[in-house]
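Q: Could you fold this chain for me?
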Amino acid sequence: MPVTDKKNVLIIDDDADMRSLLCRLFGDDYEVIALDGPAGALDRIRAEKPSLVLLDLVMPGMNGLEFLDSASSDASRLPPIIMLTSVEDISVAEQAIAKGAVEYISKQELSRLKRLVDSRLGLPQDAGQTPWKVAE
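A: Sure. Below is the predicted structure, expressed as structure tokens.
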């Protein structure tokens, strides 16, 4: 797929290893922009116009839920946001969805995340079907 035809995915995660893993997971099929936290993320979203955002829940300074709150005034102009987390708590998931996330998914479910992103962004389901799992 030519670079100019690729949709772009913005990753916001303070964990360098997770950012690197996500960049590898999505880099073949998408242009990937990776940020180490939410500071300046709204400006990057306005400038880069990503097709989708992967947002970590637990980050220093401003967590993912707080980012969703701060972005609520721009909600109609935001791309779909998928909340990524290692916190599996239904009440937090409900808060994330109520604040505008389209999905709440565990960082342990990278194969499911890849399928979800591919489906949302229209990538054929047989493309990029590399099984991914976080090392334990």
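A (continued): Residues 68 and 100 are 7 Å apart (CA to CA).
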